[in-house]
Design a protein that fits this description.
With about 375 residues, the chain is α/β, with parallel strands linked by helices. It is built from 13 helices and 13 strands. The structure holds pyridoxal-5'-phosphate.
Length: about 375
């Protein structure tokens, strides 16, 4: 039996009837772009997060772009962020002509290191963009202090952190704005691309709404500012509103699997677990371990019928398209993560026997593998 890295078909099977209903509803009223389904989802997600405004948009990358644009960040401005992340974080910054300035992450958790961020701030810095990587919340109190000291905006990349908590506070409510992705494989996933920006700020929310829809505010062919087309489909909104009702249940299931892994893996030779930050309740988007011979280890798991992933194998500053501009700098902790990290299967509908198979595969590889060096 092969344990899949993720299996979205199982989740769909559980809620198929409700999803069908949501889709039929949209086909009946034909509001395909934004419309009433988006209004309903935005209200529901705002209630869930305990935040004033949710502005739904086309995807998680556009959500970052929207947040940067609405906060007035533009060409030549520097934004301090992590290199140990999905490429979209830096891509969004570059796509508006701003400059990503990378800072290293913490060796325990892989989260952006406030001490390194402080060092990266220059007179051109306009914002800090921490990533809530793997589902943990980056140290927002420390970033807030740095932001206040230097007069910077603070934007959370919460694409992996739906429902994650830091001392009881929801990820996505701790900066000036936060971006979410609803890519199908995220903890809350659409049936295509979708994203959102959230904020407590009324004026910022109005800007976000205008920019995502061609700079319109209230009349159809009057455009008050340069906008874009970054709208969310009604279909995606209807599906997301349906799935949101299950998010806490799915997150709880993910956390239970993470706990089993933690207990089974503690003390295994050669394995390094991701440390949980004090006071943080992860959304457990990914369960990431580290091993010096990662590719060998991954092969052992594959032989034992366990799929795995690598998040992420190439640091953003070493990506081919950024090598020339950013590749000369070194971020040792980030680079080490990229060489050694491995993500194990974790998703709400994973069965107990599959969790046991993963645990057995990991333990056996390490115990027997250590003889075959
Ligand atoms: C998924 C992801 C994004 C991008 O979201 P899309 O919806 O795929 O555009 C951005 N940042 C991080 C950390 C992500 O995991």
């Amino acid at each position: 039996m092969t344990v899949p890295f993720v299996d979205l078909k199982r989740q769909h099977a559980l809620i198929e009837r409700e999803i069908d209903e949501a889709i039929r509803r949209v086909l009946a009223h034909q509001e395909f772009i934004q419309g009433r389904e988006l209004v309903a989802f935005e209200a529901a997600f705002a209630r869930y997060l305990g935040v004033k405004h949710v502005v739904g948009c086309s995807n998680g990358t556009d959500a970052i772009i929207l947040a940067l644009l609405a906060l007035g960040i533009g060409p030549g401005d520097e934004v301090v962020t992590a290199s140990h992340t999905f490429v979209a974080t830096a891509e969004a910054i570059l796509s508006i002509g701003a400059v990503p300035v990378f800072a290293d992450v913490k060796a325990g958790s892989g989260l952006l290191d406030p001490a390194e961020v402080e060092k990266a701030v220059t007179s051109r810095t306009k914002a800090i963009l921490p990533v809530h990587l793997y589902g943990q919340v980056a140290g927002m109190d420390e970033f807030r202090k740095i932001a206040q000291r230097h007069g910077l905006k603070l934007i959370e990349d919460a694409a992996q952190a739906h429902g994650a908590l830091d001392q009881g506070r929801m990820a996505g409510t701790l900066g000036d704005a936060a971006s979410f992705s609803f890519f199908p494989g995220k903890n809350l996933g659409a049936i295509g691309d979708a994203g959102a920006v959230v904020t407590q700020d009324d004026a910022l929310a109005a800007s976000l709404r205008a920019i995502r829809d061609h700079g319109r505010t209230h009349s159809k062919y009057e455009h008050f500012r340069l906008g874009r087309n970054m709208r969310m489909d009604g279909l995606q909104a209807a599906v997301l509103e349906t799935k949101l009702r299950y998010l806490d249940r799915w997150n709880t299931q993910r956390r239970a699997i993470a706990k089993k892994y933690d207990e089974a893996f503690r003390g295994l030779p050669g394995l390094r677990l991701t440390e949980i930050e004090p006071g943080c309740t992860s959304s457990c988007h990914l369960y990431v371990i580290r091993h010096e011979r990662r590719d060998w280890f991954r092969e052992q798991l594959k032989k034992a019928g366990v799929e795995s992933g690598v998040h992420y194998p190439i640091p953003v500053h070493r990506q081919p398209f950024l090598k020339e501009s950013h590749g000369a700098r070194s971020f040792p902790v980030t680079e080490k993560f990229a060489e050694t990290c491995l993500s194990l299967p974790i998703f709400g509908e994973m069965r107990d026997d599959e969790v046991s198979q993963v645990i057995a595969a990991v333990s056996n590889s390490l115990v027997h593998g250590s003889h075959s060096r």
